[in-house]
Amino acid sequence: MSVKDALREQRIETPSWAYANSGTRFKVFAQQGVPRTPYEKIDDAAVVHRLTGVAPTVALHIPWDKVDDYGKLAEYARDRGVALGAINSNVFQDDDYKLGSVCHPNASVRRKAIGHLLECIDIMDQTGSQDLKLWFADGLNYPGQDNIRARQDRLAEALRETYERLGADQRMLLEYKLFEPAFYTTDVPDWGTAYAHCLQLGEKAQVVIDTGHHAPGTNIEFIVSFLLRANKLGAFDFNSRFYADDDLMVGSADPFQLFRIMHEIVLADALKPAAGIAFMLDQCHNLEPKIPAIIRSVLNVQEATAKALLVDHEALAQAQQDGDVLGANGALMDAYNTDVRPLLRELREEMGLDPDPMAAYRRSGYAEQIVRERVGGEAAGWGA
Predict the structure, then answer these.
(1) Radius of gyration of the chain from Cα atoms?
(2) Beta strands across the sheet bearing 205-210
(3) 73 with 39: CB under 8 angstroms?
(4) Predicted confidence (pLDDT) per residue in 65-106, tens digit
(5) pTM here?
(6) What keywords does the record list, in alphabetical order (predicted)?
(7) What pLDDT, on the 0 to 100 scale, is given for residue 27?
(8) 3-state class of 4 per DSSP?
(9) N-terminal to C-terminal alpha carbon distance within the chain
(10) Alpha helices in the chain (DSSP H)
(11) 19 touches 378 (CB < 8 A)
């Protein structure tokens, strides 16, 4: 397959919450024209797909995107040229979850949390979504606060009940995070914990790698390679970080890291949609305008992917076999240092798209249109 063909088939899912008002733990700076409803989030996602050609699905977050009729919402998305993607659960905002959700010492709280996870699968049945994405804020702030091993048992029980409710074509994607909001220990703190639970559950349970959820200096591409080898890499949440879970635009902090990750994906022939890896964005910041920021993230992923596809694998393999350290590194650096923007502009023209999606958005007048039409949207808070 040619580089252009591979890029033409690439799929990047955008998150509904990134179109709405969002921000850091410090402040949410409201913007005019942000979506007021899940339907308006879909409208914005459809614009991103029309301009980039590679973002045909939008992930939902429940209850932020709760509606009375999910079949109607899915139909609305199809009419606008996109589809509903992963369903993200939320067991971290209710007061009941102060001491945890599925790991909470109180059985009634755990039952409430599991009930929400099962509700999300019910929604998947209505939307046609294949992926249930789980992230748990569960953890401890102080030594002795709870029994660490017992919390793992509770987590395993909740995951098993949820897993057994999945349909034949549905998956459970388990995300991990080093810390936050708990500071002593997190119940799913790393890829190894997520992998161990998924391994016990079965083939429909896979790991999500959020690129912002690691300790500084973590070699994320090693994790990618390991999980690919084990057939347990289900999805990415792409974003960038300088310090912690910054949720900045993907590729903005360390574009070379994004290239190295995509190189492992290409090397394993796991880029095409049939490979089953969901490439999702997960950015949620408070300064940049929403739609242009998402477009920029899509373009950044495309550029990193294009460079990864240009690696001379034959020369790389030969240098590795010969023990030529600098030659092997040079094969990667030659690809990374290639300006792939002309290639991507040419590809977009061949796809009937504007070669510069950012400029096309500015010219479209959509930003001005939604400011006029979405009066009051700026009053909505994070997650609305």
Answers:
(1) 21
(2) 14-15, 57-61, 83-88, 131-134, 171-175, 205-210, 233-238, 278-281
(3) yes
(4) 999 999 999 999 999 999 999 999 999 999 999 999 999 999
(5) 0.95
(6) Cytoplasm, Isomerase, Manganese, Metal-binding, Rhamnose metabolism
(7) 77
(8) helix
(9) 42
(10) 3-9, 38-52, 70-79, 107-127, 148-165, 191-201, 220-229, 255-267, 290-309, 313-322, 325-336, 341-350, 357-364, 366-373
(11) no
Where does residue 280 rank: exposed (0-12), middle (13-18), buried (19+ CB within 10 A)? buried
Question: CA separation (Å) from 25 to 174, 180, 207, 284, 285?
Answer: 23, 11, 26, 11, 10
Per-residue pLDDT, 367: 96
| Cα–Cα distance measured from residue 276 to residue 119, given in angstroms and rounded to the nearest whole number | 24
- 24 — pLDDT class (breaks 50, 70, 90): low
Angstrom distance (rounded) from CA 284 to CA 296? 14
The set of residues, in sequence order, having a beta carbon less than 8 Å from that of 53 and lying 6+ positions away, is 348, 351, 353
Both tokens of 164, joined, read 């057994």
Strands 171-175 and 205-210: parallel
Residue in the block written with tokens 């959700």: 101
What is the per-residue pLDDT across 258-272, written as a single tens digit (0 to 9) for each? Answer: 999 999 999 999 999
